[in-house]
């Protein structure tokens, strides 16, 4: 045990010799007290937040319902002013004005005042307007309509604009039914809009039949004074379904946060429930109650939260208690384990320290032996790095191959600093596309070892100390410790500069015409296939220009093959000066030559052929005189293969020769 007394306290004040059970119980008790305090604080905060959220939602709902009630009054008033300021309103004009107002309103009706003496004439005018069976009617049994009995004054429904698809109660005398008659009389007496108690609405779907009528008297204008009112002409009636007004545009009852109760409390002795949300209210203190005034009626609106609201605002108090208890238990258990095992840990540390010292001595011996082996390999460059690529070993073979000293690079340089930067950047770009992420150039040599668990040797270009380059074959392998853990990389490099030089010479010989020095048929076929694949996959154009030396056989026959070879060499030398860097000039065999022109259409290829034709005719060939050629042109067409393209170019050459030679044949179809 350590003798350092400054570190012999647990939590800064408990002696380390104290029983682990006592420490664990003390910590658990303190955690329980803190958890209880936190739970109480959280519960109060939750209740305040819950009430704030409820009041915010309830106030928004009250405001929306109040706006809808006021909107009913504004819309009916606009319809009334339309009647007042119109000399006569036709049914078409009425429908055109009333239809856009049907927002949260089931129907708008016009019930003109009709005296008994005018009844027959009024009914006849309605029939003449297209209502064949129109008559002034009363409510019959079971909400049916029957012909109205005689009375002094009628207020029959003449025009109706409705959202319902049911038959409209045209001709119904509003003055005949007691409840409706009462609201008409009140509107006449007050001279202003009046709302009825709840009634069963006619001409609407059964689920929307519980509602109220909003009645506005329409009085004629005085001709002498435009602002003065005259005699009563009738009533405009807004048919309002309470269910539609309270639910349209709001969440469905199964998803609503709030449940609403709307009561008519105009009569203080009894309350009439106008609307009750289907969703049940949650018990509790959350309640908002407000009074709404609507055209002479007083409504009481009560709002309570539903289970949906409570589910969307759950209390986290249980989680706080459980989490606090769990943390207290875990902390006390952790302290118990730490204290009870401290002595054992100290003993294990002492034993491990002794083992590490022995292992360190073994590693030093092994490192010395490995260094001797590495230095013995003088023809091979061996470079070891850590996981970040920093060089840790640089053998004598590497010093001889690259010219750097081991002390110069070990611990200071990374493996990528020995490589040609442009080559690393290009390889990093290829790997970025392969693995779908950005690869840093410094990772380019090592990532394949990580991703593919080692790979075959690759060819790289290293930079010597004097700035010269050396081509090497490098094998990068992982370095593992005894536990199989990855601790670095080992790169083994062989100088392949001479081998690459020989390979390049062989490659050049295989694709070059020995006589003229231009590309041969084999190389042309490879490039042609590559160009066809490119335009098929990515789009674009390319063309070929074929030329055949005129009367070349006569040159060989009369002046000898040596002079024929001289002519071919001179022509190739002259044409190469006129070609673009992107063009591929090849000798197909004998006196036939071909130019492959990437990104060139037929018109551009023809211009190039004219330039080459002019170059041939510009000056004579020594010992022979002027040498001419016949040209054929073909540009690639979609879906066309290489053979078909060459056949069209060859046909062009043949046509040029038939046409007299020393000419350029336009591209054939």
Descriptive report:
With 669 residues, the protein is of the alpha+beta class. The chain folds into 5 domains: 14-85 and 316-370, no CATH class; 90-246, Beta-Lactamase (2-Layer Sandwich), CATH 3.30.450; 251-312, no CATH class; 377-502, Beta-Lactamase; 512-658, Reverse transcriptase/Diguanylate cyclase domain (Alpha-Beta Plaits, 2-Layer Sandwich), CATH 3.30.70. The protein contains 17 helices and 25 strands. The strands form 7 sheets. Strands 3, 8, 9, 10, 11 and 12 form a 6-stranded antiparallel sheet that branches. It has a 5-stranded antiparallel sheet with strand order 18-17-21-20-19. The protein has a 4-stranded antiparallel sheet with strand order 14-13-16-15. A hairpin with a 5-residue loop joins strand 5 (137-139) and strand 6. Helix 1 crosses helix 7 (317-376) and helix 14 packs across helix 15 (561-576). The longest helix is centred in the N-terminal third of the chain and has 65 residues, at 20-84. The model is unreliable at 1-6 and 223-227 (pLDDT under 50).
Notable characteristics:
Beta-Lactamase, flat, five-stranded antiparallel sheet, alpha+beta, 669 residues, disordered N terminus, 25 strands, 17 helices, six-stranded antiparallel sheet
């Amino acid at each position: 045990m350590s003798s350092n007394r400054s570190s012999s306290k647990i939590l800064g004040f408990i002696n380390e010799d104290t029983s682990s059970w006592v420490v664990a119980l003390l910590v658990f008790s303190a955690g329980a007290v803190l958890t209880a305090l936190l739970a109480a604080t959280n519960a109060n905060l939750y209740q305040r937040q819950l009430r704030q959220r409820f009041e915010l939602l309830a106030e928004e709902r009250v405001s929306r319902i109040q706006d809808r009630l006021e909107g009913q009054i504004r819309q009916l008033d606009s319809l009334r002013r339309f009647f007042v300021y119109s000399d006569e309103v036709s049914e078409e004009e009425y429908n055109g004005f009333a239809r856009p107002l049907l927002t949260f309103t089931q129907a708008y009706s016009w019930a003109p005042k009709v005296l008994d003496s005018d009844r027959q004439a009024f009914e006849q005018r309605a029939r003449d307007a297209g209502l064949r069976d129109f008559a002034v009617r009363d409510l019959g049994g079971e909400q049916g309509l029957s012909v109205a009995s005689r009375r002094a004054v009628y207020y029959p429904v003449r025009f109706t604009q409705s959202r319902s698809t049911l038959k409209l109660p045209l001709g119904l005398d509003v003055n005949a039914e007691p409840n409706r008659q009462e609201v008409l009389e009140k509107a006449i007496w007050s001279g202003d809009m009046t709302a009825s108690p709840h009634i069963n609405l006619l001409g609407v779907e059964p689920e929307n039949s519980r509602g109220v009528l909003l009645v506005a008297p329409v009085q004629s204008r005085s001709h002498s004074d435009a602002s003065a009112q005259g005699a009563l002409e009738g009533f405009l009636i807004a048919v309002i379904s309470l269910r539609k007004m309270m639910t349209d545009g709001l969440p469905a009852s199964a998803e609503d946060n709030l449940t609403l109760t709307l009561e008519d409390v105009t009569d203080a002795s009894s309350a009439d429930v106008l609307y009750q949300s289907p969703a049940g209210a949650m018990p509790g203190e959350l309640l908002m109650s407000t009074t709404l005034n609507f055209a002479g009626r007083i409504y009481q609106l009560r709002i309570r939260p539903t289970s949906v609201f409570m589910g969307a605002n759950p209390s986290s108090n249980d989680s706080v208690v459980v989490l606090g208890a769990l943390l207290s238990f875990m902390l006390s258990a952790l302290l118990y384990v730490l204290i009870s095992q401290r002595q054992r840990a100290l003993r294990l540390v002492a034993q491990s320290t002794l083992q590490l010292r022995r292992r360190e001595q073994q590693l030093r011996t092994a490192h010395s032996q490995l260094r001797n082996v590495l230095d013995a390999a003088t023809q091979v460059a061996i470079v070891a790095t850590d996981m970040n690529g920093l060089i840790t070993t640089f053998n004598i073979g590497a010093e001889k191959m690259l010219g750097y000293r081991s002390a110069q690079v070990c611990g200071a340089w990374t493996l990528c600093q020995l490589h040609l930067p442009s080559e690393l950047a290009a390889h990093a770009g290829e790997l970025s596309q392969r693995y779908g992420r950005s690869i840093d150039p410094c990772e380019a040599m090592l990532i394949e070892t990580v991703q593919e668990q080692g790979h075959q040797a690759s060819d790289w270009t290293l930079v010597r100390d004097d700035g010269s380059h050396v081509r090497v074959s490098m094998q990068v392998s992982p370095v593992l410790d005894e536990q199989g853990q990855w601790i670095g990389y080992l790169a083994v490099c062989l100088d392949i500069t001479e081998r690459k030089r020989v390979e390049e010479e062989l490659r050049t010989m295989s694709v070059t015409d020995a006589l003229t020095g231009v590309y041969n048929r084999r190389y042309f076929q490879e490039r042609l296939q590559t160009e066809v694949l490119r335009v098929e996959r990515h789009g674009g154009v390319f063309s070929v220009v074929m030329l055949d030396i005129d009367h070349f056989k006569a040159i060989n026959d009369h002046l000898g093959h040596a002079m024929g070879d001289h002519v071919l060499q001179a022509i190739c030398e002259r044409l190469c000066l006129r070609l673009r860097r992107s063009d591929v000039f090849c000798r197909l065999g004998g006196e036939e030559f071909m130019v492959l022109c990437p990104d060139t259409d037929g018109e551009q290829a023809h211009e190039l052929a004219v330039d080459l034709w002019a170059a041939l005719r510009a000056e004579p060939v020594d010992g022979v005189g002027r040498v001419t050629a016949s040209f054929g042109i073909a540009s690639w067409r979609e879906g066309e293969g290489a053979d078909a393209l060459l056949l069209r170019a060859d046909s062009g050459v043949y046509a040029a020769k038939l046409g007299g030679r020393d000419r350029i044949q336009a591209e054939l179809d």
